[in-house]
Write a structure and sequence with these properties.
The chain is mainly alpha-helical and 272 residues long. The protein is 69% helix and 0% strand. It has 10 helices and no strands. GO terms for molecular function: ABC-type transporter activity.
Length: 272
C-alpha cells in the first residue's frame, strides 16, 4: 500500500505577499525610534538652521529658504532612501535576517517591494513635515496647479532611483557595524555636489559633471522647478529645468538600479 505524498500549500499571489512584506517593513521602521527621529527630524533641523543663517543673493525676489526648500526635500528623500536603506540592509545582512528570509518561500522581489513601499511612506511623511515647517516658519510659496503633478512624479521617481542605489551601496559595507561610516559620507558627498546645500551654479563645473551621473542631482533640479520661478532656470547648466531629461535619467537609474541590485546584492555579509 502506497502513501500519497503530502500536498504542498500554495503560496498567496505575489501582490499579496508584497503588501504583507511592506506592512512588516513599515512596522519595523516605526518601532526604531532613533531611526524615525533622525530620518524625519534631521531635514527639519537643516531647514531651520541653514535657512536662518544663510542668505545668498539669488535675485528675482527669491530668498534662500524658498530656494533651499527643493534642496532640503531632496536631502529628506535621500536620507529616507539611499542612506537609511543602505544602512538598514547592511544591518539585516550582518545579523542574519537576510539569510533567514532567503530560506523562506517568500520571493526576493517581495522583500525589495516592501523596502520601496517603506521608503515612499517615510518620504511622504518627511515631505509633509518639511512643507508644514517651511510655510509656518518661512512663508514658503507652495507649488500650484500642474506643478503639484511635477512635484509628485519627480519625488516618486527620485525616491525609487535612490532606493535602488541605496540597496547597491549597502553591499559596500563589510558588516552592519561599518555601514553608517561607509554610507553616510557617500550620501553627503552626493548631496553637496548636487547643489542640495548651496546653489548648483556655485558648484565647480567638473563636480557638476560628476553629479550629473547620479540621480540626486536630477531629483534636486526637478524639485527646484516647482519651487522657483522660471527666471531662475537660466542658472541651471542647460539654461532650463530640463524636465524631460530629469524623467529620462531618473527612469534609467531605476532600470540600472534593478540590474545592479540583481548583480551585486548579497544575502550574507563578507565576513560570513
Amino acid at each position: 500500500m502506497t502513501t500519497a505524498a503530502p500536498e504542498r500549500t500554495a503560496l498567496p499571489p505575489l501582490g499579496r505577499v508584497c503588501l504583507t512584506r511592506a506592512g512588516v517593513e513599515l512596522k519595523e521602521f516605526f518601532r526604531q525610534r532613533e531611526s524615525v527621529v533622525f530620518t524625519l527630524v534631521f531635514p527639519v533641523i537643516l531647514l531651520l538652521g541653514l535657512g536662518a543663517v544663510l542668505d545668498y543673493d539669488l535675485g528675482t525676489g527669491v530668498d534662500f529658504p524658498q530656494y533651499f526648500m527643493a534642496g532640503v526635500i531632496t536631502a529628506g528623500i535621500v536620507g529616507a532612501s539611499l542612506q537609511n536603506m543602505a544602512i538598514h540592509i547592511a544591518g539585516e545582512r550582518s545579523d542574519g535576517t537576510l539569510k533567514s528570509l532567503r530560506g523562506t518561500p517568500m520571493p526576493a522581489s517581495a522583500y525589495f517591494a516592501g523596502k520601496v513601499v517603506q521608503v515612499l511612506a517615510v518620504a511622504v511623511a518627511t515631505i509633509a513635515l518639511l512643507l508644514l515647517v517651511g510655510v509656518l516658519v518661512y512663508g514658503i510659496d507652495l507649488p500650484s496647479g500642474a506643478d503639484w503633478l511635477t512635484f509628485t512624479w519627480v519625488s516618486v521617481l527620485g525616491a525609487a532611483a535612490c532606493t535602488l542605489l541605496g540597496i547597491v551601496v549597502s553591499t559596500l559595507a563589510r558588516n552592519g557595524r561599518s555601514a553608517s561610516a561607509t554610507v553616510t559620507p557617500i550620501a553627503l558627498v552626493l548631496e553637496f555636489v548636487s547643489g542640495v546645500f548651496l546653489p548648483f551654479d556655485q558648484v565647480p563645473g567638473w563636480l557638476q559633471d560628476v553629479a550629473a551621473v547620479f540621480p540626486v542631482k536630477w531629483l534636486a533640479q526637478g524639485l527646484r522647478s516647482v519651487f522657483l520661478p522660471d527666471a531662475l532656470a537660466a542658472r541651471e547648466p542647460a539654461g532650463s529645468w530640463e524636465l524631460g531629461t530629469v524623467a529620462l535619467v531618473l527612469g534609467l537609474w531605476c532600470v540600472a538600479g534593478l540590474v545592479l541590485c540583481a548583480a551585486t546584492f548579497r544575502w550574507q555579509d563578507r565576513e560570513g
